[in-house]
Design a protein that fits this description.
The protein has 227 residues and is of the alpha+beta class. The chain has ten helices and eight strands. It has two domains: 4-74 and 181-221, 3-Layer(aba) Sandwich (D-Maltodextrin-Binding Protein, domain 2); 76-173, Periplasmic binding protein-like II (D-Maltodextrin-Binding Protein, domain 2). Helix content is 37%, strand content 20%. The chain is globular, with a radius of gyration of 18 Å. It comes from Ochrobactrum teleogrylli.
Amino acid sequence: MSTLAVELALKSVLLPSWQTESRRVAVDWNPTGVLIDRVRNGERGDVLIAIDEPISNLVEAGILRAGSVRPIARASFGLGARSGAAVPDISTPERFRQALLSARSVAYSQTGASGIHFRHVLERLGITDAINAKATIIHAGFTADKVISGEADLAVQQISELMSIVGIHLVGPFPDPYQKHTDFSAAIFAEARNPEAAEAFVDHLSNSKAAAIYARSGLLPRLQVAS
């Protein structure tokens, strides 16, 4: 079970380099909020990749194995637009605000960390009603898909998620003071059906070679690699 934030890194390199004829991984991709709700409702897997805070809560609850948590990456929030479209300047708070107001529609997630943070940003900018009147809000998945489909001009999500969609250009990160970083870790379920494979997979996600993959995928590696 994995957050969407690391999907590009895993699908592009880390999963293909792990899987063999005798070693396969089935991944359930969803926002952390959706994954945590499902885990609390009784769903289990072997490994969970999610935001640090709910990971810690699940360790305390005995759902994830204590001592199995490995920090892997940090994500930042950004805006994406269709490749070839005019790219707005969002380098300052005022230009960021104007870019959002000028867009025909802004796509953001209802349940993901990016959408939760974006709602707070809109409140601070004083444009909640103006943006939500024309917003394209999704329950799960990639907001950039709504830009590709023509339903929105701009997509709000973590930069690594925006980079996952072909045909999307990264406009840029949220400017300070509206930026926020989200830390992700991998952990093993206490009731993992394949504990040895789970341990090996988490090692694969948190070794020194994985750091470059995360960096190329719009993430900041935060691996704790034993020397």
